[in-house]
Design brief:
2 strands; single chain; Arc Repressor Mutant, subunit A; two-stranded antiparallel ribbon
């Protein structure tokens, strides 16, 4: 649910604005933990102005796998 919202808004909104669009049952600490995990795994990048840039592109990853390059 959080990952889908981040992908949908990409870099249009800040993390606070995205969190407010989520259902009320998502707590802030859970949201920030998920953000840290997604940033660590290379799916997102948090800009200085707290907007989210989506980096994950499955089609590029598949091309890299076919070329036998290491993917994180």
């Amino acid at each position: 649910m959080i990952e889908q919202a981040l992908y949908r808004y990409r870099s249009d909104k800040t993390i606070t604005q995205i969190w407010r669009t989520l259902p009320k049952k998502v707590m802030w600490t859970t949201f920030t933990t998920t953000l840290r995990y997604l940033e660590y795994s290379g799916k997102i990048y948090l800009e200085k102005d707290k907007t989210v840039t989506w980096l994950w592109n499955p089609s590029v990853i598949e091309k890299l796998k076919k070329q036998h390059l290491m993917v994180r």
